[in-house]
Amino acid sequence: MSTHQxxxxxxxxxPVISEKSTLQAEVNKxxxxxxxxxxxxxxxxxxxxxxxxxxxxNVNVLNVxxxxxxxxxxLGKKSDWKKAYVKLKPGHDIDFSAA
Length: 99
Hints:
Layout: H1 3-11, E1 12-15, H2 19-28, E2 30-35, H3 41-52, E3 56-64, E4 68-71, E5 74-77, E6 81-88
Antiparallel strand pairs: 1-2, 2-6, 3-6, 4-5
Helix pairs in contact: 1-3
């Protein structure tokens, strides 16, 4: 495995499992992932194709701002993160329940 492929395996952090993302997956074949903040659309596409053996149609990214939280007396802020909406080509699917 090359160093580029090693980097691609670290690009995807975790799938985002929520009501909205589950509905998107069922209706439009769009899977939502939490990814590295510095990852590009091309890197995300290559990482999904490498890890799940599927073909990706397109990728949309969204920068999520961290929320303000109170920790006891002090105010704090959660970290910012990046979300990727990955649309799969027809005939391809990722099943997380079998993994």
